[in-house]
Amino acid sequence: MRTIRGRIFTSLIIVMIFSVLTTVFLFNHLIDEMLMDQARNQLRLQMTKAIDIIEGGDLEDLSTEDLELRFRDRMFYADFFVVDASDKIVAAGEDDMVGGKIHVSMSPKDHFFTLDGQKMMYTHQRLNKGLRIIVYTPMDILKQISGRVLRVSLLSIVISFAVIFVVGLWFVWKTTRPLQQLKEAVSKFNPKHRFPGIPQGDTSEIGQLINTFSSMSERIQKQHQQQIEFLQNVSHELRTPLMSIQGYASAVKDQVVTVEHGLHVVTAESQRLIQMVDRLLQLTRMETLQEEWKLTEVDLQDMMEHVHQLIAPAAADRNIQSALNAASLEMAIPAEQIFQVAMNFMQNAVRYASHEIKLSLEEIPGGFRICVDDDGPGVPVQERDSVFDRYYTGQSGITGIGLAICKQIADRLGAGISCTESPLGGARFCFEYGQGGHHA
């Protein structure tokens, strides 16, 4: 049985058989012990009764009919015989036994003897004049009673286990049915085509597994769609500078533009291509490699001033006023990665701002917070969790790589990254770093 259902069925059958056999064995042993104890007690009671009869008269007054044995709703009669010091039978419930000889141990540990090939349970007592009385009953009687009780008990056990087995089969089918449906749904899954979806699971562990697969399939389809859009965007963005390079190269060749102007455009567009490819390689490297980022003691205020200076020309081209508010703070940090986060935030702000952007650095317990505000259209609330996705691009976005790189850096450093509403009216992007959370 290679399927889970088959294995559970097989395991259930094995457990049921083992349980039935064990229960029957133990129950039969228990019944035998109970009947044996009951038989000993009854024989002792009949022994007391026999002695009372003998002491009130003589041996001839005692008969088998006086020695009643009751087991449940059935009545039997015990038998007896009296022997002298030489083990000769002087009185017995059966007259043909009188005069014969038989040796029965008087040890308190012995409870059985054999008579005419049959096993007998007995009890004994000494009488006057060296006589002994033995009261006994055949073990066959106990076996009959034990068999009757065992048959009734077995019937109830079989019925009980049959009900349990049916319920178990139903439970196994009910449990494995969702797994079978999940298997069929997953086998049809193809991220390239519209997927009908995986059945909704319940609150059980299997139901939670089904819901997890359903969520995973949705993420895979979403990622596949984002990859297609990303490739389309990247292809478009790469095609634009390539076309510019090709066009100006042809223009220089045809002497439509000066060589100096053509080379300037080709150089600028080539640099743009290199930057885009470098960003793609960097994002891929961070997702696939776990390289160690070295900590460097730096002045974060100087770093923010450097970021502000580098972004100033781009801001001036769009008539954007930029402001810096940075506290003096020195700390050992992965400087290159933190610098890149600040630059990406500022480039993003310049791209979307209307008139103003602001870069701020403040100290927090155990670390610092970098925030960049703009007065642009902002990010809709429902999109703020998606803005850091690898392929997300806003209205003025290019490839959706910059903020995705920031998110990768934050995740690697155990830092916090967020997108909220800015006091300037646009978007605020914050990066919160604490040395206790660093594990790059």
Please, could you describe this protein's structure?
There is one protein chain. This protein is of the alpha+beta class. The chain has three domains: 4-148, PAS domain (Beta-Lactamase); 205-288, Signal transduction histidine kinase, dimerisation/phosphotransfer (DHp) domain (Helix Hairpins); 296-437, Histidine kinase-like ATPase, C-terminal domain (Heat Shock Protein 90, 2-Layer Sandwich). 52% of the residues lie in helices and 19% in strands. It has seven helices and 14 strands. The protein has helices at residues 4-56, 139-187, 205-253, 259-288, 300-317, 335-352, 402-413; strands at residues 68-71, 74-77, 79-83, 89-92, 112-115, 118-126, 132-138, 296-299, 321-326, 330-333, 356-364, 367-374, 416-421, 427-434. The strands form four sheets. A five-stranded antiparallel β-sheet has the order 4-3-7-6-5. It has a five-stranded mixed β-sheet with strand order 9-11-12-14-13. Helix 3 runs antiparallel to helix 4 and helix 5 (300-317) runs parallel beside helix 6. The mean pLDDT is 80.
Helix/strand structural class: alpha+beta
Largest sheet: 5 strands, antiparallel
* Rounded radius of gyration (Å): 48 Å
H/E element order: HEEEEEEEHHHEHEEHEEHEE
> What is the strand content?
15-25%
CATH superfamily of the largest domain: PAS domain
Strand arrangement, largest sheet? 4-3-7-6-5
Supply the key terms:
alpha+beta, Beta-Lactamase, Helix Hairpins, Heat Shock Protein 90, 5-stranded antiparallel beta sheet, 5-stranded mixed beta sheet, 52% helix
